[in-house]
Design goal:
single chain, 260 residues, mainly alpha, 3 domains, 11 helices
Length: 260
C-alpha cells in the first residue's frame, strides 16, 4: 500500500510523539498500581497492563484507518448518519439491557455495545457539516438549528438515562459552536441562563417539593464531593479512595512499583 507523502507531511508529529509517550506512561502506571494485588489481577501482575496495551494497539490501528477516511459528508451521508444515530438510540431504549439503572447497552454474547458512544462521533461529523453550511453564527437565532440538531439525540440519551454522556455532548456542542465562529458572549449568556434555571429549580425542589428531573443517584454523583462518607458504597467511593491514596502516598507518592 502506497502512503501519500502529503499525508505524512501534514501529520502533527509532536502531537503523535506526546500521545505515544502518554500511552507508554499509562501502561507503566497501570502496571505499577496493579502488580502487587493478586486478588485484582488473578495472580498475573501483567493482567491490566496487557489489557491497556491491547486497547492502545486497537486505538492506534483505528487512528491509522481513519486517516484514510474522508470525513467530509455528502448531503445523503449527512442524513444517513444522523438518522442512523437516532435509530440506534431509539433501539437501545426499546431492546437494550439495563445496567446500573440505565438502559444504555446492547449485549451480543460477551460483547457490550453502547450506542451513545457512537453518538459522540456521529454528532461531531454531522454537526460539523451542519455548521459549515451556515453563513453566519452572529446572533442567537443562528444558533437555534445547532441546538435542535443535537437536542433530539440528547433527549434520547437523557431518557436512558445517561447524564454523563449528555453533558459530554453539550460540551462538544459549545466547543464546536465556538470554533465555528459563534460569539463567546452569546455562548456565555446561554450557559449562565441554564445554570440560573437549574439553581432556581433545585431550590424550588428542596424547599417546595417541585419535582426535579434528575434521579437521586444522579444528584448524589454531582454532590457527593461535599460529604463523600454519606455515599461510601456509591457515588462517594472514588472521592474516598482518592483521599486515601493522597493520605497514604502524600505529595510525592510512594514511588514507582511501590504501590500497596
Amino acid at each position: 500500500m502506497r502512503v501519500d507523502r502529503r499525508l505524512l507531511k501534514n501529520l502533527d508529529w509532536a502531537l503523535i510523539a506526546i500521545t505515544l509517550i502518554l500511552i507508554a506512561t499509562g501502561v507503566v502506571i497501570v502496571y505499577s498500581a496493579t502488580r502487587a494485588n493478586p486478588a485484582l489481577t488473578g495472580g498475573n501482575p501483567f493482567a491490566y497492563a496487557r489489557k491497556q496495551i491491547i486497547a492502545a494497539i486497537i486505538g492506534i490501528a483505528m487512528v491509522i484507518g481513519l486517516m484514510t477516511f474522508d470525513y467530509h459528508l455528502s448531503e445523503r451521508g449527512y442524513y444517513a448518519l444522523y438518522f442512523l444515530n437516532l435509530l440506534l438510540l431509539i433501539a437501545v431504549l426499546l431492546f437494550g439491557k439495563e445496567v446500573n439503572g440505565a438502559k444504555s447497552w446492547f449485549h451480543i454474547g460477551p460483547l457490550g455495545i453502547q450506542p451513545s458512544e457512537f453518538a459522540k462521533i456521529f454528532l461531531i461529523l454531522t454537526l460539523a457539516r451542519h455548521l459549515s453550511q451556515k453563513d453566519s453564527l452572529s446572533s442567537f437565532f443562528d444558533l437555534i438549528s445547532a441546538f435542535v440538531h443535537i437536542g433530539v439525540p440528547l433527549l434520547l440519551i437523557l431518557l436512558q438515562p445517561d447524564l454523563g454522556t449528555a453533558m459530554v455532548l453539550v460540551a462538544i456542542l459549545f466547543g464546536m459552536l465556538y470554533l465555528a465562529g459563534a460569539r463567546p458572549k452569546h455562548l456565555g449568556a446561554i450557559v449562565l441562563s441554564v445554570v440560573a434555571i437549574v439553581v432556581v429549580w433545585a431550590l424550588l425542589s428542596a424547599f417546595f417539593g417541585v419535582p426535579f428531573p434528575l434521579k437521586s443517584y444522579q444528584i448524589a454523583r454531582l454532590t457527593a464531593f461535599v460529604n463523600p462518607q454519606k455515599y461510601y458504597d456509591g457515588a462517594g467511593y472514588n472521592v474516598i479512595q482518592s483521599m486515601t491514596a493522597v493520605g497514604s502516598g502524600r505529595f510525592l507518592g510512594k514511588g514507582l512499583f511501590n504501590s500497596t
